[in-house]
Amino acid sequence: MIALGDGAVNINLVAPAEVRPKLQRLLLIAVGVGVILGMFFGINFTWWAGVIVALVIAVPLVVIAVAGMRRNQSIDGTVLTSRSGPTRVVDLATADSVTITVNRSRVEQAMLRADNVAVTLAVYSGERGRELPIDAVAALERGLRAADTLARHEVIKPEADDAAAGAGPGDGPASLTELADLLKAHLRAEAVGTPLAERPLHRAIQATGGGHAGSAVTSAQVREITG
After folding, report:
1. How many C-beta neighbours within 10 Å does residue 163 have?
2. 79-83/87-91 β-pairing
3. Which of 150, 162, 198, 218 has CB 3.0 to 4.6 Å from 93, enough for a Cys bridge?
C-alpha cells in the first residue's frame, strides 16, 4: 500500500530531546559503575570475576539507555513507524486492527493501537495530564481518514461483508473514520482551551467505566462524545 503524505511527523508524547540528556547521564553512570566495580572485583578476586560483575552491572543499563535514546515514533501519510529496539512499521490502511484503547488506573492512558504499534495519545493523573502536540494529533487524524479512503478500495470478502451487515450500531470498536472524528473533536477542544477533564480523549477514557485494561473505544462511545 502506498501511503499518502507530505513528510513524516513526530508523534512522541515526550519529545526525544527532553529525555536524551537523562539517558546519556544514565549511560555514563552505568559504564562508570561497571568499570569501578569490575576493577574492585578484578583486583581483590580474579580478573574474570571483575569482567562478569562489570558486564552484569553495566550491560542492562546500557541497553535501556541506548534503546531510550533511539526511541522515536512518526507517521508519514498512513504509515506508522516506531523505533525502540526493533523498528516496527504498520500501514493504517492495511492493519488488521486499528483501535483507540484506554487503561484506567492511578494514571489513565489513551492509546492508538495499530497491530503491533502503540502510540500514546494522552496520559492523565487527576486534574493534570499530558497530550500529544496538536500537529501530531492532526497528522494522526489525517492518516486515519486517508487510511479509510484507501481501505475502501480494497476487495471486501463476502463473509466479511455479511458479518458487518449483521452487526448492530456500536457493537464493536470504532471505525477509522470514527477514530478520526474523535481526534478532530479533541483538536477543536484543545484549540479553544477546553479543560482537560472535558476533552474528548479524557471523556473516552471515562466512557469505558470500569472496563478491563486495554478496552477499545466503541462506535457508540465516539458518537456520544462527538455528537
Report:
1. 10
2. antiparallel
3. 150
